[in-house]
């Protein structure tokens, strides 16, 4: 009987049909409080069941997952990607879904196609410096077993607290639809808790709060399922607001370690032409008083906003989160919508006071004209903004770019996702935004999709773009891409840890030296060797400085 097993980097995407000739790893140096991830890949020449177990002094901090394939139905949208940095441009299966091994009873079925285990060790923050071992046993029913060992050296340094503000947009309506539960039923609240916990587990520390249903990816003239947290009643020209559900939502966020909050956009997407869909009760009748039928600058909506923002601001103060809250105006305005965005901005800015306002945009003139205090710029255009030394620069990517730049599409090698961390550090980026934490709809939410059949919103986006978590039976599954993004943030944190010892300029010089160039968002080394080599060099330098 032939039995192959290899222990490989978390940056390898090992597909079921791949040959197991990858470089093996058996030792890692880490900081206390760091998350270490790697993979164990197994293939046999005949089908058999096997038990899996783990032994480690880190105890329950070591978790095992079975890596399941996702259906990559639409790898890219654009043509001309041949020669670009993709694993494949053909539809097919790609390893991505992380199923906790507890769900399988710590058993796996081995075949002549590769089975992969994801090993994740959250090194305790109080772990003493020294050498440790993680031992994973794979024991087929035949009675013999194979043991893979990872030797972990914890250096005398601790991972610093995450500085990056990181958000991927959270959609409460998609949770209700996928799990077939009533919106804001107890079942829905339990699931919201689990999804926010999963978000925090992947490094997300800012949540999009649906004070009203976020006016995002909604076809003009339609509505998405209403997940409005704030109950609103109109009596004459006055509005009253109930924040009971809002407080419960914020409590869940706080419990799971969320530190920052972004309020749903106050105007329609892509130009701020209309009011968002907002449910209001008037004369005992509940309906959409505001929406596509109401102009953004209408007297009635402006009057409402003044009262709405004042009530929200008071509630934010009461929750103690005012300083950690950002407000949106409209998502991705273009130069063609400068006038309507300016009008909306002029309405909003006096109302939000010291609260920060930020939006995804890629035209510098919006910032230059004072319409937004915190620009969130596409990675394709961020260097144009960086030339102006903006003090609170954010960046984002979404369904593009497909060429050259970093992104987190399924068809991309993991290294192309993880390089983001060193880029964020080098250019002193304060925050990162992505539009899809759990978007399980087609384009502009015409209909829901099954994320196990289409990872592209039914050929609306490159596979993997709409979400980084998967709905389970009554739970949520993490993904390989989400864990790789977490590692990117850790790379950024390690840069900050080293900066304490040698200064920022020296750290940036080390990054560029390892890259062999001036590292840029549009020019960076491909492959995992640069990333793993630089990280190892930095950890060793920190160890020397702490000796």
Q: Please, could you describe this protein's structure?
A:
- The termini are far apart.
- The strands form four sheets. This protein has an eight-stranded parallel β-sheet, with helices on one face.
- The protein is of the alpha/beta class.
- The mean pLDDT is 96.
- Helix 1 (172-179) crosses helix 2 (186-201) and helix 9 runs parallel beside helix 10.
- The protein has helices at 172-179, 186-201, 244-255, 299-319, 338-352, 364-368, 382-386, 414-418, 420-426, 480-502, 504-515, 528-546, and strands at residues 3-9, 27-32, 35-44, 48-55, 62-72, 92-100, 107-110, 115-122, 130-140, 146-158, 165-168, 206-209, 231-235, 238-242, 260-263, 278-282, 285-290, 325-327, 356-360, 374-378, 394-396, 431-434, 470-471, 476-479.
Quick overview of this protein structure:
The chain has 547 residues and is an alpha/beta fold. The protein has helices at residues 172-179, 186-201, 244-255, 299-319, 338-352, 364-368, 382-386, 414-418, 420-426, 480-502, 504-515, 528-546, and strands at residues 3-9, 27-32, 35-44, 48-55, 62-72, 92-100, 107-110, 115-122, 130-140, 146-158, 165-168, 206-209, 231-235, 238-242, 260-263, 278-282, 285-290, 325-327, 356-360, 374-378, 394-396, 431-434, 470-471, 476-479.
Overall pLDDT level: 96
What is the approximate shape?
Answer: globular
How many DSSP-defined strands?
24
**Radius of gyration from the alpha-carbon trace, in angstroms:** 24 Å
Helix content: 25-40%
- Main sheet properties: 8 strands, parallel
Question: Strand order within the widest sheet?
Answer: 11-22-21-20-19-18-15-12
């Amino acid at each position: 009987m032939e039995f192959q097993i290899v222990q490989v980097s978390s940056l390898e995407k090992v597909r079921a049909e791949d040959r197991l000739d990858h470089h093996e790893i058996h030792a890692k140096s880490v900081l206390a409080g760091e998350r270490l991830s790697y993979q164990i890949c197994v293939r046999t020449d005949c089908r058999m069941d096997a038990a899996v177990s783990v032994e480690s002094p880190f105890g329950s901090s070591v978790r095992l997952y079975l890596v399941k394939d996702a259906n990559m139905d639409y790898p890219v949208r654009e043509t001309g990607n041949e020669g670009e940095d993709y694993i494949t441009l053909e539809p097919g299966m790609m390893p991505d879904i992380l199923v906790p091994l507890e769900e399988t009873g710590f058993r796996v079925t081995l075949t002549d196609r590769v089975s992969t285990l994801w090993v994740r060790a959250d090194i305790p923050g109080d772990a003493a410096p020294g050498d440790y071992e993680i031992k994973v046993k794979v024991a087929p029913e035949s009675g013999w077993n194979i043991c893979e060992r990872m030797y972990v050296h914890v250096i005398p340094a601790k991972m610093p607290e995450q500085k990056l503000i990181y958000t991927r947009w959270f959609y409460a309506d998609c949770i209700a639809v996928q799990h077939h539960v009533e919106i804001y039923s107890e079942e829905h609240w339990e699931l919201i808790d689990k999804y926010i916990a999963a978000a925090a587990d992947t490094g997300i520390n800012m949540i999009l709060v649906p004070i009203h249903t976020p006016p995002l990816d909604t076809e003009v003239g339609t509505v998405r399922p209403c997940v409005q947290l704030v109950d609103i009643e109109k009596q004459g020209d006055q509005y009253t607001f109930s924040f009971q559900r809002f407080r419960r939502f914020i409590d869940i966020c706080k419990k799971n370690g969320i530190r920052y909050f972004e309020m749903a956009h106050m105007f329609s997407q892509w130009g701020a032409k209309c009011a968002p869909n907002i449910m209001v009760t008037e004369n005992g009748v509940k309906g959409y008083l505001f929406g596509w039928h109401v102009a953004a600058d209408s007297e009635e909506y402006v009057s409402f906003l003044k009262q709405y923002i004042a009530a929200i601001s008071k509630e934010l103060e009461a929750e103690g989160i005012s300083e950690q809250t950002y407000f949106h105006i409209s998502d991705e305005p273009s130069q063609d919508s400068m006038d309507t965005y300016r009008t909306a901005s002029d309405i909003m800015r006096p109302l939000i006071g010291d609260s920060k306002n930020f939006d995804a945009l890629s035209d510098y003139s919006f910032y230059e004209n004072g319409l937004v205090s915190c620009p969130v710029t596409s990675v394709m255009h961020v260097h144009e903004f960086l030339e102006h030394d903006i003090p609170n620069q954010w960046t984002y990517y979404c369904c593009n770019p497909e060429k050259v730049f970093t992104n987190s599409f399924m068809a991309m090698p993991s290294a192309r996702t993880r390089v983001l961390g060193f880029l964020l550090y080098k250019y002193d980026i304060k925050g990162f935004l992505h539009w899809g934490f759990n978007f399980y709809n087609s384009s502009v939410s015409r209909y829901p999709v099954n994320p196990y059949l289409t990872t592209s919103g039914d050929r609306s986006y490159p596979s993997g773009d709409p979400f980084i978590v998967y709905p389970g039976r009554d739970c949520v599954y993490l993904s390989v891409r989400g864990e790789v993004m977490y590692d990117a943030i850790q790379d950024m944190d390690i840069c900050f840890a080293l900066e304490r010892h040698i200064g920022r300029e020296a750290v940036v010089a080390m990054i560029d030296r390892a890259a062999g160039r001036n590292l840029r968002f549009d020019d960076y080394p491909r492959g995992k060797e640069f990333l793993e080599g630089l990280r190892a060099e930095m950890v060793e330098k920190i160890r020397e400085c702490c000796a």
